[in-house]
Structure formats: C-alpha cells, structure tokens
Amino acid sequence: MMRALALRFPLKGLAAVALCATLLPSGQAALFEDDEARRAILEMRQRVDGLQGSQQRMAEEVRRLGEENSQLRRSLLDLQTQIETLRVDQAKLRGQNEQLLRDAADLQRRQKDIAQGVDERLRQFEPVKVTLDGQEFQADPAEKRDFEAALAVFRSGKFPDAGTAFTAFVRQYPRSGYVPSARFWLGNAQYATRDYKEAIGNFKQMLSEAPSHARAPEAALSIANCQIELKDTRTARKTLEDLVRAYPQSEAAGAAKERLSRLK
Predict the structure, then answer these.
(1) What's the angle, vertex CA 65, arms to CA 64 and CA 71, rounded to 5?
(2) Which of 8-22, 29-43, 158-172 has the highest mean pLDDT?
(3) CA-CA distance, 176 to 174, in Å (whole number)?
(4) Buried b or exposed e, range 168-183, using 16+ CB within 10 angstroms
(5) Are 224 and 240 in contact (CB under 8 A)?
(6) Does 208 or 39 have the greater pLDDT score?
(7) Does domain 128-263 fall into CATH 1.25.40.10?
(8) Is the pTM of this model over 0.90?
(9) What is the largest CA-CA distance in the chain?
C-alpha cells in the first residue's frame, strides 16, 4: 500500500515521510520515526566523529608545525650562536694576526739593530789605512788608538809616562807599521828623561829596521846628541858625518854640519 501510494503521489524528503506517517497505523508510524531518528543520530555521530577526527588531525598538524617551528627556532638560535662564535674567533684571529705582525716588525727591527751593532763591533777590529811620517800601512783600530794615546802623553810633557806607553806599544805590536815612529818617540822620551843609553839603543834599532823612514835623519841626529851628552865626542862626530852622507838633503844634515863645526 505504501509503495502504491508512493508511486501514485511521488513526494520528496520529509514531506513524503510525513505523508507516509499519516497514512500508516500509529505503531508502524512510531517505528518508522525511530528508524529515521537513529539514522539521523548515526549520521550526526559520523559527522561529529568526522569533525573530531578532522580536529584531531588538525591538532596533530598544528602540534607538528609547532614542533617544527620550535626546532627551526632552536636551529636559528644555534646558527646565530655559531655565527657569533665565529665572529669572536675571527676577531681573536685578527687580533692575533695583528700582534704577530707587530712582533714580526719588532723582531726585524731588533735583528737590524743587532746586525748594525755587530757590524760596528766588527769595524772596530777591521784594519784601517793609516798614513804616518810618509808611510802608508794597514793597522788595527786598537793599534791606532794605543799609539795616538801614547803620543798624546808625550805631547803633554809627561815623558816618563810616555816612555812607558811607547815601550808597552812596541812590546804589544812588534810588527805594527807604527813601530818605527813609536821607537822614535820612545827615544825622544828617554832623551828627555836623560836615559841616553836606552835612547841611543831605540834610535839605532829604528834606523836598522827603517833606514828610509821620514824621521830617520832626525833619529841619527838624536843619537849624536845623546853621545854628546855622554861626553863621547869622537863617536858623536862620526855619527854626524854618517848622517850628512846618508841624508844630505835633510834638515837634520844641515843641523849636523853646524854641530860638526862646533865640535872641531
């Protein structure tokens, strides 16, 4: 009957359900309403369950995104920390590099100063060219210094001290180019202190070692003077005659001729 009615009076949705309910007996109508209600409840529950599932999935997605966001933040913080650490390390390295450059510059300056100091000390020991009494020779700086010091003492009039200084010089530098001149001044210092015999010995040794020395004529004249002081006139005359023959053009030869004239 219901089916026939539905075919004759086609209705849709709730209108059809309401019409059928009016046509059905009361017991059958109530049963029909309970089934519809249960289906509606089931559908509602399915929708609710679907919504809850969607909410849970959304909550999980939100939680996952939150965790990823937190992880990303931690990664960013770690990266910033690493960057800051690198900046600090770079600053330290830059400072160390600058210090190394300063140290290297200081070291180069010290090496240069040391090298200059060594060169100066070496120059103190390097021979120097000396020209004295017409003679040119090489001498150590120490020789030059000691000779000039002894000559300064002689010129100051301290003849005993000068004699000691020249004696020490000849003993310390026996092969020095200064030796002929040192013996000449040593003889003069001894003559000044009336040590005539020692003076004669030094003058003769000078003439023997350096007969062509510029002061050789003076040395010969000084020998004659010492002999005159010793009252050895005969020997003094011979010495003066030898001087005139050996060094005829020298000033000492003119003085020797004058002395010879007085000795006759």
Answers:
(1) 90
(2) 158-172
(3) 6
(4) ebbeebeebbbbbbbb
(5) yes
(6) 208
(7) yes
(8) no
(9) 200
Query: Cα(190)–Cα(151) distance, rounded to whole angstroms?
Result: 14
Is 137 strand, coil or helix?
strand
Residue 15 in this model has a pLDDT that exceeds 80: no
pLDDT in tens, 185-201: 999 999 999 999 999 99
Which run of H or of E encompasses 248? none
Parse the chain into domains and list their residue ranges: 2-77, 128-263
Q: pLDDT tens-digit profile of 47-61? A: 877 888 777 787 788
Sequence-distant (≥ 6) Cβ neighbours of residue 243 within 8 angstroms: 217, 220, 221, 224, 252, 253, 256
Distance of CA 87 to the CA centre of its chain: 30
Beta bridge partners of 138: 129
